[in-house]
Amino acid sequence: GDKYPQTPEGKVLGVIIMLIGLSFYGLVAGLGSNFIINRLKKGNEWMISTFTEHTIILGVNDKLARVVDLLLDMGHRVAIVTEDVDRVAQYPEHLVAIVEGDFVREKTLMKARVRDASNAIILADTRGRSDRDADARSVLAALAIERLKPEIKTVVETLGIDTARHLRAAEVDD
Prior knowledge:
By secondary structure, the protein is an alpha/beta fold. The protein has 5 helices and 5 strands. It has a 5-stranded parallel beta sheet with strand order 3-2-1-4-5, sandwiched between helices.
């Protein structure tokens, strides 16, 4: 009892209708995925709104996983700030929040709740940058953090010897 097109024009029209149907299905699936991904990101933003006395880690390098594991073992909640969230491993979201953005910008630091944080760790993020550029960004981030919350304990990983002088001028702790 199936009915199907018999003429060449009917067959062409049938193919067009099938392609439109498949395209519509792809559109709905894509919109659904986008919605879910955005909700997950917003969930992470909501989660960080519950953080106080947490540690903020700015930048990503090969030491990040060890630092996060150490902080979690000590019972700290952690906010990781980076432009490249794909470089960050998955952690329990009630303990680790990932804030996407440029960590030298005050707006990004505010999203990470720097004023509610107790510690800040700035890792030398050299991906796509020279050591000197990574250190310059670390100094800028330290200055921004110290301006927003002078009493925060700030630790900075540096790559150049002369960078320490700039960090002492910014009143960075270590």
